[in-house]
């Protein structure tokens, strides 16, 4: 047994699942950013006709999942599992979305690492022969996250320059054992690394060591170096975390200067959009992956991608008790070629 | 592909993973209940030397996981994945436990359904050939849950008779492709069912329809009836939910009167312990499964068990916004015989 394991934290999929459709929905601010042409739907206002931001986030996730299912010409009855999570207490955006959809459901909490946590579990269940269609999904919402993790928006507090802007958006990926691809080929599952940072307005620094740990283990496990990939993209380290990762990885002997970026860096225009250290939230890598990356893979701009969503696993309660912020990062390899 | 699927929500494991060790830790009140002889450790006080209930819960989960690993004669380095979750915002009990253990980690949120959500994903990853050792774990704590979901304990509010008592405790199950068993043979993954209940002090009624839905689909998918099992045991429907399930299943043509009970009914003595509608919390089915059920399976009292942890997927925020409480139930079949 355990023949699919490669090294300590990585598995290779025997029959790499195909991404048969993907969908992304974002809020108005994200829709004004540099990636606006790639999203399937840009909302005009972030309540989307609902009476609370939490209900809006749940609707965004639900409609995003439906979008991926519709794009594949399928219905919810065809989906064996929905694997989803979000940032909210008791992951209510996902729970209430899953309630409306009626698909057998596994709820996850991986903070902003959820997109790749979901893709990792979904791809392994599929390669294991347990499902024919799985939707992996996540969402976040600026206004739900601000009032839950930081301050009520009405308070109007000043944001630190290290703070990131939670993306309002969702991403959903529908996978199946066969299809034109791209394909999920390899998975490196993260350990929790806690560098001792207690400032909830500096998530990039809190998550960077976990991102490094996963990257280094991925390269060791696979025998690859960064040049194997057209694109290495982290979830939402933002400008602060991205710079730390590039610097520290250089000290470890890995050159990330050429083909590495971060979803939180790409989604907003720093000079025009006042988003300080960049985007964050599960919906950041969720929408960037299902919008930008998959579409550019289909066009052939990228053929080998290492997507690594990154999460900060604290709660306000536990940081108020003096605890530091633990980070985690899960990496998934997506390639246009199924073999090799 | 998808050869392991049986009906709409059920899969059969080709190489049923063996439970090679299990561990349970409970608080003082649980240690005075009818199952006290079965738990591996009973705490003398529920802070366990820490400075907060949340830190205590995390320590309980961490020590419980270590207990299972030690019992198997292994170390944390031998474990490929830790799959865990709990009730707290951002599942901090699991996150901080996983931080201490350093095992590649998938965080789950399934509320009180977490024990079987974790066993389901763990068993499928193992049968898929992705791991040699996986720990599936969960925890809950009366005092962390009360102040998060209901009222500060200092407030001293009167408890409704339909209210359940959150178990202080944890359970951890270590699985491997081979071993003496018992074995995880079959998995039925739940859909969310929401009967429209808005009373957070009546979880049994909120979760009972989801439990029924999973049971009915399990029986339809497998072609079995309740008499196939020595024991059918739900996670934490308590007295209210258990009675609803027995009554409503009878109307559907299934007789559960002989071999069905609930972990929340078994863990406390209703007449002596003032626990109203019974126990609840992830740690309820976590500790009852890893304490009582596995030990009695090894003695041969039970040979075929259907364990179905049940979860209520609300948050206080969303019920305050007028939403009802969605329920979910995941069922796992554990048998002493690997074949058949």
Can you tell me about this structure?
The structure is a homodimer of 340-residue chains. With 340 residues, the first copy, chain A, is α/β, with parallel strands linked by helices. Chain A has 2 domains: 17-176, Stage V sporulation protein AD (Peroxisomal Thiolase, Chain A, domain 1), CATH 3.40.47; 183-335, 3-Layer(aba) Sandwich (Peroxisomal Thiolase, Chain A, domain 1). Chain A contains 10 helices and 15 strands. In chain A, the strands form 3 sheets. A 7-stranded mixed beta sheet of chain A has the order 1-2-10-15-14-11-12, sandwiched between helices. In chain A, strands 4-3-9-7-5-6 form a 6-stranded mixed beta sheet, with helices on both faces. Chain A is globular and about 55 Å long. The model of chain A has no long low-confidence stretch (mean pLDDT 97). Chains A and B meet through helix 2, strand 6, helix 3 and helix 10 of A and helix 2, strand 6, helix 3 and helix 10 of B.
């Amino acid at each position: 047994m355990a023949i699919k394991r490669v090294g300590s934290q990585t598995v290779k999929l025997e029959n790499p699942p195909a991404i048969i459709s993907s969908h992304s929905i974002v809020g108005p601010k994200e829709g004004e950013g540099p990636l606006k042409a790639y999203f399937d739907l840009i909302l005009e206002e972030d309540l989307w006709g609902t009476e609370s931001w939490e209900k809006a986030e749940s609707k965004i996730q639900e409609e995003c999942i439906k979008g991926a299912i519709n794009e594949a010409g399928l219905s919810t009855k065809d989906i064996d599992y929905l694997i989803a999570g979000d940032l909210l207490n008791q992951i209510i955006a996902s729970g209430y979305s899953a309630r409306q959809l009626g698909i057998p459901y596994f709820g996850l909490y991986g903070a902003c690492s959820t997109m790749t946590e979901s893709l990792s579990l979904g791809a392994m269940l599929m390669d294991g022969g347990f499902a024919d269609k799985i939707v992996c999904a996540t969402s976040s919402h600026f206004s739900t996250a601000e009032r839950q993790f930081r301050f009520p928006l009405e308070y109007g507090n000043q944001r630190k320059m290290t703070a990131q802007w939670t993306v309002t958006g969702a991403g959903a990926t529908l996978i199946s054992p066969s299809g034109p691809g791209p394909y999920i080929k390899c998975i490196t599952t993260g350990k929790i690394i806690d560098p001792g940072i207690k400032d909830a307005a500096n998530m990039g620094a809190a998550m960077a060591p976990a991102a490094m740990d996963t990257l280094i283990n991925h390269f060791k496990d696979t025998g690859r170096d960064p040049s194997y990939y057209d694109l290495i993209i982290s979830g939402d380290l933002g400008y602060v975390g991205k710079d730390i990762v590039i610097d520290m990885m250089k000290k470890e002997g890995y050159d990330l200067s050429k083909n590495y970026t971060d979803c939180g860096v790409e989604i907003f225009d720093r000079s025009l959009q006042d988003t300080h250290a960049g985007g964050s939230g599960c919906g950041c890598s969720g929408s960037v992956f299902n919008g930008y990356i998959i579409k550019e893979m289909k066009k052939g701009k990228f053929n080998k991608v290492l997507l690594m969503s990154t999460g900060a696993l604290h709660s306000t309660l536990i940081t108020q008790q003096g605890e530091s912020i633990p980070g985690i990062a899960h990496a998934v390899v997506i390639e246009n070629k199924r073999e090799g």
